[in-house]
Amino acid sequence: MAEKSKILVIGASGYIGKFIVQASAESGHPTFALFRESTLHDPVKGQLAKDFKSYGVTILTGDLQDHESLVKAIRQVDVVISSVGALQLADQFKIIAAIKEAGNVKRFLPSEFGNDVDRARAVEPAKSIFEIKVKIRRAIEAEGIPYTYVASHYFAGYFLPTLAQLGVTAIPRDKVVIYGDGNVKVVFNEELDIGRFTIKAVDDPRTLNKILYIKPANNIVTFNELVALWEKKINKRLDKEYISEEQILKQIQESPTPVNILLSINHSVFIKGDQTYFEIKPSFGVEASELYPDVKYTTVDGYLDRFV
Questions:
Q1: Which alpha helices (DSSP H) does 117-190 contain, by range?
Q2: Which of 29, 204, 244, 307 has the greatest number of C-beta atoms within 10 Å?
Q3: CB of 71 closer than 8 Å to CB of 98
Q4: Do residues 35 and 12 touch, judged by C-beta distance below 8 A?
Q5: Backbone angles phi, psi at 171, to 5 degrees
Q6: Model confidence over 37-96: pLDDT tens digits?
Q7: How far, rounded to the nearest angstrom, does the alpha carbon of residue 200 sit from its chain's CA centroid?
Q8: What is the rounded CA–CA span in Å between residue 96 and residue 73?
Q9: pLDDT value at 1 more than 90
Q10: Which pTM value belongs to this model?
């Protein structure tokens, strides 16, 4: 069997990054995680670095603002995965420059892990965030760097524990707010499954210079179907409040950051249907659960069982 690629995760301590590191390590890839020196002294992130080490991950120190440290880290690996957060998306131009100088990278997966930004029709402020991701894509392509873009859609762990309700801390048992008519198809994937599908793709020629869409059939549901699944589990009907597109657009205008960002992403997904309105064509994309039927993923239905 071919040797597994060495993988560097930049943004390893972030929300999705830690799941990517875990998936990489458990799949037998030599795995490296980039940490800032100062981060290693942070009680929470320092502990995370220790946890990574316990399952065989090599911790490298470096900084997006330190070109030489980036080049040095990148020269030790074959694949670079960025999972930096929204505020650092533009810093990925520095990763591109370092990859270009290092000259050894077989694949770069930039920080995507959401909607396919080339096909999103979001309003502000989500629009500007998506536009940075689009610019990163074009820069990667212009430099001729081999890539895979991962469209993982909604994080189950972020949205399902509250049924995508804003400003609540527990799953609703009496009343639920539904965006639009509730009939738009949406995709929810558990974070570790996203990590596992992502790692499967790094050495796969079928995903080279393509978008990897994580859209398992059992995880594509409408808001109404999601609520119906939950009602069946708790054997109770919820009061439903449907809010129109006009109401959502007004809320986006009137809400502070980051609530307005979340609302504008929800508008893109639940109203515009940006995760499911187009067909995946072989010219630009592939679907993860079709490529990797051996990945046993958590279904939306199974995920909700945790809250009964």
A1: 126-142, 156-159
A2: 29
A3: yes
A4: yes
A5: -70, 135
A6: 999 999 999 999 999 999 999 999 999 999 999 999 999 999 999 999 999 999 999 999
A7: 15
A8: 13
A9: no
A10: 0.97
- ∠109-126-251 over CA atoms, to 5°? 150
> Which pair of structure tokens corresponds to residue 279?
């067909």
233 is catalytic: no
Query: Can you tell me the distance from the alpha carbon of 189 to that of 168, in angstroms, rounded to the nearest whole number?
Result: 21
Q: List the catalytic residue out of 18, 45, 133, 200.
A: 133
Instruction: Output the CA angle 112-118-122, nearest 5 degrees.
Output: 90
DSSP 107-127: EEE-S--SS-TTS--PPTTHH
Q: What is the 3-state secondary structure (H, E, C) of 263-297?
A: HHHHHHHHHCCCCCCCCCCCCCEEEHHHHCCCCCC
Q: Check: CB of residue 20 under 8 Å from CB of residue 198.
A: yes
Q: Where are the alpha helices (DSSP H) in 153-244?
A: 156-159, 191-201, 223-234
